[in-house]
Amino acid sequence: MHPVFKKSRHAAALAVAAVFVPAAAQAYVGPGAGLTAIGTMIALFAGIVLAIIGFVWYPLKRMMKNRSKPAERAEPSAERSK
Fold first, then answer.
1. How far apart are CA 5 and CA 42, in angstroms?
2. pTM > 0.70: yes or no
3. What are the b/e assignments for 3-40, b being 16+ CB within 10 Å?
């Protein structure tokens, strides 16, 4: 590989790394905003968990319940024999 391309790859990698280095934030989050953010994260997590339960667990539970029932025999009805 040509040395110029090697230097430009290093420079690009350094530039990308510099973008992701956090700077010191001079900010204050009050108790109301902090509790709101925490509550929002808890609600988001609970919603994801309940969605997984609703879309995965209950159909599996229904399938297992139907599988465990003994198969009913089909008996001829009295009306058909008339």
1. 48
2. no
3. eeeeeeeeeeeeeeeeeeeeeeeeeeeeeeeeeeeeee
Query: What are the tokens at 36?
Result: 């709101």
pLDDT value at residue 36: 96
Residues of the chain scoring pLDDT < 70: 1-7, 69-82
What HEC string does the chain produce?
A: CCHHHHHHHHHHHHHHHHHCCCCCCCCCCCHHHHHHHHHHHHHHHHHHHHHHHHHHHHHHHHHHHHHHCCCCCCCCCCCCCC
* Per-residue pLDDT at 12: 84
Whole-angstrom distance, CA of residue 49 vs CA of residue 56 = 10
Token look-up 């995965």 returns: 56
